[in-house]
Amino acid sequence: MKAWRRIWHTSLRGKLIASVACCLLLTIGAGTMLSSWLTKDMMKETVLQNAGNSLDAANLYLTDQINRLIYISNYLYLDQELNLALKYRRSGIYVGQTEASDVTKKLDNLSYAGEQVYISVWTGNGKMVYSNFQSDQYQLDKLDIHQLTNSGSFVTGGKLNFLLHPSYLQSKEEPPTYMLSVARSLRLLSGKVYGYVIVSMNEEQLKAVLNKYNSTIQMMIVGADNKIISHPNNAWIGSDFTQLYQQREGILELERDMSVAGWRLEGLVPYGVAAEKINRIYQVTNFVQMAVLIVFLILLVLGIARLTRPIVKLTGVVRKIDNDNLSIRSGIRGEDEAGVLGQSLDAMLDRVEEMIIQIECEQSERRKAELEMLQAQINPHFLFNILGAIRMDLLLKGSEEAAVLLGSLSSLLRMTVNRGNECIPLQEEIETVQHYIRLVDFQREVKVHVEMELATDTVGIYVPRFIVQPLVENAYHHGLSKYGGILWIQSWLKDNVLWISIRDSGEGMNEERLQAVQQVIDQIQKPNIEYAQHPLSLSASTHTDLSKRDVATADTDNTSEQASSDHSSAEYKSSSPSVPAISGIGLTNVIRRLQMIYGSAVQVHIESHPGEGTEIKIGLPHKQ
Prior knowledge:
- Residues 554-578 are annotated as: Disordered.
- Helices cover 51% and strands 17% of the residues.
- The chain is α+β, with helices and mostly antiparallel strands and 624 residues long.
- The protein has 5 domains: 2-45; 54-271, PAS domain (Beta-Lactamase, 2-Layer Sandwich); 310-372; 377-418; 423-621, Heat Shock Protein 90.
- The chain is rod-shaped, with a radius of gyration of 65 Å.
- The chain starts with a helix and ends with a strand.
């Protein structure tokens, strides 16, 4: 179990190699077991088939030899000359030398072709009168014709008798052998036996045929009485076949019937010896399979290692990223999955680094804004108390208009200084705008008529602080700075988007200036950090871009403002020197703040025509 867990927690490459190796080993193991099981039966069938072929070939040759004995016996049994000579001898009639020579020559002719056979003709009283061999050279005393014919197995009446007996045609010095003989009696019409014909062959001739196939099968001839007639081992001749077969284990038995009634050719096949060659082939095949498997596994391991190298490299890259090394890149490219993954990882790291830089820039700007805010908050409570005391004094003295203006100034300053809440209801933002308009109209000779159309379902929606007042301030400074006019402030809700519109009836911008301003806004709204470092910004104090000939570039940073908008600032000072810049937040910062809060869901649209005025519409996402 522990070993399995170690394998399971190893690398992907190791898991792939282990999985493929297990699948291969299981497949080959199952195939080997199935092949072994099927091969076992096939091997047995093959062994039996080969042994059967050998048995058939031997049976054919043995049958030919035995049939030759039968043929000679039948020929002599029907030969009239031989029968007449034997009858004459029985009757005491002299048979001449010529007739005897003719019979002997006939016997020689019959035994001339083929294997050596021994033919002898006997009288009824047991005397051999004709033969194709010299009788004085052999131990004819071993052939007792009376004992042979009086045995229980001898059948008279001209029928064939197959007899196995010790050889009578050998010298005393030779080891004992056996002969196979075919004997039949010659009878008169009265049934009286007047002669015998015996055709014999050495059992060694049969044994030579049996030994020819002895390497794969042990053959023997078994008679009708289940006694062994011929066997490669002389010691088993005459023994019971059943006794021999029962003493052998692991032996396959086959048999073929022979031409002699009751005789059969038995074959004993030692299965282990016969299957040894096939087993050797099977072992060689298994060895080759194992060698091929090992080579295949080596190639497979090398191939998997090569294919998974990008994944291993990606793993190393991810580990370094986990150790806060974001500058590393995989460098893996390609059209496969690993190449796509490596390219995506590198692109993601690029975006992460850009986002980190963007966040650092935003945090730097936020810290700068907070510092400016702290610098602006110089004892605000003391200032508010003084303004409140002056307002009360004016009311007591009957200067109601001055008291109202002073109250608006106090409220505006309080709203400017008190930045504890990031978002306020739209109604409060509009009240701040109204205080600002009251103060600006007080110091201007030309009044601006303000029309507000706020949908009732929008006044309670929370919006970021100071997003409307800077836009109204821009309109006062540049669009309505000389001749006054009308200022429209509208809000409505459509498709879960809060729309706020500030439109003036001022001078407007030509197409070239409008495109320049729109380009700056588009640059700010890009989803990257370029806008944070862009030299152009639309501030409240340099909104001359929206109405004059030049695109002013100013931000809360005074240095940048002086470097990029001298011409616009000069125009502003000459045109409206008495209009205060309360918030110090330009259009660029408004858009930037909204984008930091709402992301890319912020929508900003500017429309302007020369002589007709400028309209700025801001869309903020709103959820119920």
